[in-house]
Amino acid sequence: MSYSTADSLHSVTLDDVRGAQKMLTGVARVTAMEGSRYLSQLVGAPVHFKCENLQRTGSFKLRGAYVRIAGLLPEERAAGVVAASAGNHAQGVALASSLLGVRSTVFMPTGAPLPKVAATRDYGAEVRLHGQVVDETLAAAQEYAAETGAVFIHPFDHPDIIAGQGTVGLEILEQCPEVRTIVVGIGGGGLAAGVALAVKSIRPDVRIVGVQAEGAAAYPPSLAAGRPVSIENPATMADGIKVGRPGDVPFRLVEELVDEVHTVSENNLSSALLLCLERAKLVVEPAGASPVAALLREPGAFEGPVVALLSGGNVDPLLMQRILRHGMAAGGRYLAVTLRLTDRPGALATLLGVLSVADANVLDVSHVRTDPRLGLTEVEVELHLETKGPEHCAEVNRALREAGYTVIG
Prior knowledge:
The protein has helices spanning 14-23, 37-43, 61-70, 74-79, 88-100, 114-122, 134-148, 159-175, 190-202, 219-225, 248-257, 266-279, 290-297, 317-330, 347-357, 390-402, and strands at residues 33-35, 47-51, 81-84, 104-108, 126-129, 151-152, 181-185, 207-213, 260-264, 306-310, 334-342, 361-368, 378-386. By secondary structure, it is α/β, with parallel strands linked by helices.
């Protein structure tokens, strides 16, 4: 499938998605569908995970990238391809190009996580680090395309990309024919548009619910305006859906076919990632966990059976560590307390004894002795504790008060 500039403004069809599915046979995995007992109980209906985090390269992006590059004319392939990405699209383009024997150059921000840079190189791309933010990286890639004649592979704003991502929707219908609601994260809109097109063309009764991070939610104002609009400084831990403006091609399909767009907080995202890891034993990146975040935030809003599309699992280990701590805090599993003690031998040991009886695990202790707010014989102690949840936090605070301590923060 190859489109001219004029054709690229036209909609994608179910035949395009079915053609993409044939093209991807033996290339992309038919990823697993796993049930979630915890979420099923919470929602009151069966909930399943569509595990694109287990796809080759760790995300759905391979599907669209392969279909787009496979559809290039011979002379376009000879010129090579170029892309800009901080992670998932970079790896999808790199592997797809290698499989098709096409030279690829991928521009990535200078601060891109080292594991993602290494993976992109390992898949066969020439990686060039440029710019501090993705917009600068994107501009560099487009300049390279203009100078060299390489074909720019957009991460979401092209019919071939959308057709490739739509194959996920066909698999969902095959694996869970009784599905009533599909929940999918939205960044630029390529995945949501493709899934909605594929599913609604066959099962118009299935509801498609999109999810965006509150700090990067460009679709609600765009849908209200009836056209893609930009938001200033999108900010979220979910890099995979941190897009400031919807794509022109996916926007039209999302506007027509996606039933609702929900937003989720950073706390919702980190709690969802923690749930996937602890309950489902699945490593999922924040963008991939966004459908789970929506289910946790409003469990009564979704008619079942529900399929939550886990779009990717490429998360930097350092970010994972921070997110897990954030998720545990959001779930009441961390407690930070500050209190003052008399600065005498044994005072800290006595305090730790109270916490031990309360079954709180001490993660970190810091002392302040020189603050002018403190009396001559006082010391301020800040404790970071691991707890079992909100009720346990309350029990720990009560135990401290009953032991005569005043918690000041």
